[in-house]
Amino acid sequence: MSAQNETTLVLIKPDAVWLGLIGALIARIESANLRIVGAKMMLLTQEQAKQHYHDLESRAGTAVFGVAVAYLSAGPVMVLAVSGENAARRVRKLVGATDPQRADSGTIRSDFMSISCDTAVAQQIPLQNRIHCTDPDEDGAVARELALYFGADELVNQYPTAADGIPVFVPIRT
User: Is there a catalytic annotation at residue 132?
Assistant: First the structure.
């Protein structure tokens, strides 16, 4: 597979926002040489959360769908458009498996985990896995999810590169 520059969606979920993890999670993304090309804090309506989880009810059932929608719309989310070579797959690897208990060590969900999927389902409570990223294997998911949160005019993907001859600015010490 050849490398291609692309943009994908990341949501920092309400639990991570409430815990003050926005900076730490963005730092992980940027440390992986990925760029934030769009960002906004939002309070999602239940309708927006239902659109986000458009197929969850058919995959996981009405109870899980209801809890997920209520949770995603319960508080602020930080919405990010992230760009880079193979961004969707790289972000997915950085974030880790949906179930924090099954996420590889060193991934965001493993390092910042709260509860497992099994516990969340058994207790009918939200899976507080801190972050959402688009599934790169779901056809059309990246474009669909980006369009839910961003207009094309809201993304800024014009970062200079060394090839542009832009000098590196060093802070002046006084």
Answer: yes
